[in-house]
Structure formats: structure tokens, C-alpha cells
Design brief:
InterPro entries: Cu_polyphenol_OxRdtase (IPR003730), Cu_polyphenol_OxRdtase_sf (IPR038371), Cytotoxic_necrot_fac-like_cat (IPR011324). This protein is an alpha/beta fold. Helices cover about 30% and strands about 20% of the residues. The strands form 4 sheets. It has a 6-stranded mixed β-sheet with strand order 9-10-13-12-14-17. It has a 5-stranded parallel β-sheet with strand order 3-2-1-4-5, with helices on both faces. A 5-stranded mixed β-sheet has the order 6-7-18-11-8, with no helix packed on it. A hairpin with a 4-residue loop joins β12 (about 285-295) and β13. It is elongated, with a radius of gyration of 26 Å.
């Protein structure tokens, strides 16, 4: 069932009389024949450079005032570019949690619109397309089978659309304050560039993703282009090249990727000794773990959730540094980033048993159906068992709390994302590290 209708008038000549006629006919059909009462309707128009936005919108209002049932469900969105108009409409859809959209547009605009949609939306949304014409019966507003694919746009046209989207996103202001990076005093900054991100300083606007979300998936509403823009801003602030940035491909297991060798399909650890290459691990409750060997000048990053912790992903990353780069395990420094703490994190009793076997102190209220789990303590114990020196591990056990960067993500909604706290449409922060040139 259609939840919103998008009428694309962006490419039409600026002839208000014709636009008003088209609008009136389409809105009459929507008003009378929609399969749901008064769907949300967005009219997308081009704003001329230097024109007054309010006066232009007012000129479209007379034919809209007759549609009382739509009331505040109808909005004219004018912008200088199609990217800006469509992104504004996406914000409106996200505010109302709408996902099923019918797009009414000139046939020649369809392939262009699909490129915009592919870049600005994710698989969470469903789109149906209808040719822009005067509707004469109610059938035109029922959901129909998607039309067959037209010819592909020339690559230069696709490149222009991508550039238009990129320029618009770069122009957007940062949200929730300045971009903030947490750094560890354990990792020497004359050799390594590193940090852990927080949620501030990006452009993601959905509350659970706002604002510096650094991961996109088909199940979330933040598209890859927004994540890419957030990463660009992070790279500028931190001083690394986003074009040589590599993030682990999460599998919640213990595979490790060796930079420069064949990349596995999925892996939760990554290591390198290449200068200028930035590697990273995400976290939104799971631990982003960074590894640095200042002697052999090698580094690593790992994503350690409860499954990866039990499977030993952190020691697997250490072992990869030892075997690939000749590192001495006693030289490797390990920093655990922001992650869900034992104050908040629970697992079913059967899973908690595995942590109890590592150390009973990793589990609180063990006899309960869902005991509290300390995946950080478990990680430290496994690292120390593998030969990492206790003083070379920085986590939430540091005595000087001013040096603590292993905050509980669930306890600090102003600073960090949390899957545990925020649900399915959650944001992601990262830990990143590189060897300086």
C-alpha cells in the first residue's frame, strides 16, 4: 500500500498555469481514489537561482487549497538541484517512517530518477513509478507491477548525478556539534595516527543515526553516500586519506585480512604494515579494538562482539601481526574502544556460560535467565593469556579515569551509538589506525 506520493515536476518549464493544471488533475485522483485515506504527497519543483522560494511556493498554492482532505499532508519542495529536493523529501519520509512511495514523473525522467534513488535511499524503501499524465480513473493510483528497465544512462550522466549529490551533501552543516575523536595515550602518536569516533559532527539526521554514522546497510535508512560524506569529514579532521581507508567486513567470527593479500569475503580483523593505509573496525556495542607495534611498525584493528570475543578474534589479529610482520607479542599495544559495558549488557544463560568458563568475574547474576556480561574483561584475559603484557592493554580498568576511552556505549546516548539501546536502525562508530608516512 502506497504511503506517500512524489510528483516530480523538476524538469518541467516554469509555466505555472500548466503546472497548476497538472497538479489539480493528479491531486483530484489522489484525493478521491487513493487506496489509503489522504496519503502524504510531495511535489518536487526546481527553484530558479536567485528567486524567492516562499513566493514561488505561494504561486502553487491556489490549486492545492481545494484538497481539504490532504490538509498538512501535501508539501511543495523547491530546490536548486534535484539532489537537494529529493534529499529534503527523504527527510520528510524518514520523519514519518514512510517506506512505500509512488513516484509520478515524466517518462524521460525515470532513468535519471532511479539513479538518484539508488544513491540517496537504501533497500528499506520501495518505489513504484507512474508516467506523468492526467489521470482519468482510479486505477492509476493502485500499486502495479514495476515497469521494465529502460536503457542505461550514459556513464557521464551518472557521474554528473553523483557529483551533484556529493556537492550537496558536502554543503550540509554538521549536526550535534563538532566532530570529536577519542585518542589513547598508549599508542605513540609520532608513529601512528589513530582514534575512536563519537556520534557528533556528521550529517546523518535520523535520531538513532545522528550524526556521524559510519556504516550503511540494506536494513538501515542511511545511504552509502551519507556515510561516505561522514567519513570524508572524519578523514579531514583526523588527517588520513579516505581513498586508502579499509574497514573490516563483519562476520562476528575470527578471520583476519592481511592487507596486500587476497581479501576474504568476510573478516573481523585486519592488519597492515603499509604506511598511509588506514584500517578500521566498527562498533555499536561490540568492541572496536586497535593494535599497534611501534617496534616493527605494524598495526591492526578488530571488531569484537560477544561471538568474536569467544572465538578469539583479538588474539587472531595479534597472531597475524606476529606471523606476517615478525612482531614480538610483548611489543604489541592494544586499546579497547567504546563498547557496551557490564553495567548494561546481557546474554541468555547458555551464552553466559562460555564467559563464565573464561572467568567467573566476567558474569554477574550468573543464575539469572539473562546474566550481565563483561566482554571487555574477557578480551583482556584472552589477550594476557596469549602473551600481551597487562600494561600494554588499555580498557575500562585503567586507574586514571581521565585516560579512560572505553566508555559504555549504551550509557552515553549523547556520545555513542548503541544497537542494544537504539534497536534495528542504529548508527555505528569506528576505531581507526594507520602508520604515519
Amino acid at each position: 500500500m502506497v504511503e506517500a506520493v512524489l510528483i516530480d515536476l523538476f524538469s518541467l518549464p516554469d509555466n505555472l498555469q500548466n503546472i497548476q493544471g497538472l497538479l489539480r488533475n493528479m491531486l483530484e485522483t489522489i484525493d478521491k481514489c487513493s487506496s489509503i485515506p489522504a496519503p502524504f504527497v510531495y511535489v518536487m519543483c526546481c527553484q530558479k537561482q536567485g528567486s524567492e522560494r516562499d513566493s514561488e511556493q505561494e504561486s502553487l498554492l491556489p490549486p492545492l487549497r481545494d484538497f481539504h482532505s490532504l490538509k498538512k499532508r501535501l508539501e511543495v519542495v523547491r530546490a536548486l538541484t534535484a539532489a537537494a529536493a529529493l534529499y529534503t523529501i527523504k527527510e520528510r519520509l524518514d520523519e514519518k517512517d514512510l517506506s512505500i512511495i509512488k513516484v509520478i514523473l515524466p517518462p524521460l525522467r525515470k532513468d535519471l530518477m532511479k539513479v538518484y534513488i539508488d544513491h540517496l535511499f537504501t533497500a528499506v524503501y520501495q518505489f513504484e513509478f507512474e508516467d506523468l499524465q492526467v489521470a482519468t480513473d482510479c486505477e492509476n493510483l493502485q500499486l502495479s507491477e514495476p515497469q521494465s528497465e529502460g536503457q542505461r544512462l550514459p556513464m557521464q550522466d551518472v557521474a554528473l548525478i553523483r557529483r551533484e549529490i556529493q556537492m550537496y551533501l558536502e554543503s550540509l552543516p554538521s549536526l550535534k556539534g563538532e566532530l570529536t575523536i577519542l585518542r589513547s595515550s598508549l599508542i605513540p602518536d609520532d608513529i601512528f595516527l589513530h582514534g575512536f569516533t563519537t556520534r557528533t559532527g556528521g550529517i546523518s539526521y535520523i535520531p538513532t543515526l545522528s550524526s556521524c554514522n559510519l556504516f550503511s546497510s540494506s536494513k538501515r535508512r542511511d545511504p552509502q553516500v551519507v556515510v561516505k560524506e561522514n567519513l570524508r569529514r572524519l578523514a579531514n579532521a583526523a588527517g588520513f586519506n579516505p581513498d586508502t581507508f579499509h574497514r573490516v567486513k563483519i562476520d562476528h567470527a575470527n578471520a583476519v585480512c592481511i592487507m596486500g593479500k587476497t581479501e576474504p569475503d568476510s573478516y573481523d580483523g585486519i592488519v597492515t604494515n603499509q604506511k598511509g593505509v588506514t584500517i578500521a573496525a566498527p562498533g555499536a556495542d561490540c568492541i572496536p579494538v586497535l593494535f599497534a607495534d611501534p617496534v616493527r611498525k605494524a598495526c591492526g584493528a578488530a571488531h569484537s562482539g560477544w561471538k568474536g570475543t569467544l572465538l578469539g578474534v583479538s588474539m587472531a589479529t595479534v597472531n597475524a601481526m606476529v606471523s606476517e610482520y615478525g612482531c614480538n607479542v610483548k611489543d604489541i599495544l592494544v586499546v579497547l574502544g567504546p563498547s557496551v559495558g557490564p553495567c548494561c549488557y546481557k546474554l541468555p544463560h547458555e551464552s553466559a556460560k562460555e564467559f563464565y568458563r573464561i572467568d567467573p568475574k566476567c558474569v554477574r547474576l550468573f543464575e539469572s535467565a539473562c546474566p550481565y556480561i563483561d566482554i571487555r574483561r574477557a578480551t583482556r584475559i584472552l589477550l594476557e593469556s596469549g602473551g600481551i603484557l597487562p600494561e600494554n592493554i588499555q580498557d575500562d580498568s585503567v586507574i586514571d579515569q581521565s585516560q579512560n576511552i572505553t566508555f559504555c556505549t549504551a550509557c552515553h546516548p549523547d556520545k555513542f551509538y548503541s544497537h542494544f539501546r537504539d534497536g534495528t536502525n542504529f548508527g555505528t562508530q569506528i576505531g581507526f589506525i594507520s602508520i604515519k608516512d
